[in-house]
Write a structure and sequence with these properties.
This protein has one domain. 44% of the residues lie in helices and 15% in strands. It has three helices and three strands, in the order ββααβα. The chain has a three-stranded antiparallel beta sheet with strand order 1-2-3. A hairpin with a 5-residue loop joins strand 1 and strand 2. The longest helix is centred in the last third of the chain and has 17 residues. The radius of gyration is 13 Å and the shape is globular. The model has no long low-confidence stretch (mean pLDDT 94).
Length: 89
């Protein structure tokens, strides 16, 4: 079985469009190790930039400070996390 990245278009509640793309399972394992604390709790300060860099491929190069509203940043990065974790939103 060969890994084939999945993609999905996502439209936020604010109407902004994003494209998510899944990453290799080995890369996802590394990301999970980096974004969680010793108790397995996801750390926003690490998880959000990781989703923007590795899972959200369009628009490319997004940073946390590119978002005007925290709610939009939180919504989009959580949707990207769920897409990668579950293979869907």
């Amino acid at each position: 079985m060969v890994f084939k990245p999945k993609t999905e278009e996502y439209t936020s509640q604010a109407g902004n469009k994003y494209v998510f793309q899944s990453v290799f399972p080995s890369k996802w394992a590394q990301i999970l190790d980096q974004i969680t604390d010793k108790h397995g709790k996801v750390l926003n300060s690490k998880a959000m930039p990781a989703m923007l860099e590795h899972v959200i491929v369009q628009p490319a190069g997004l940073k946390m400070d590119d978002f005007e509203e925290w709610a939009e940043l939180q919504e989009v990065t959580q949707a990207a996390f769920l897409f990668q974790q579950q293979g869907k939103r």
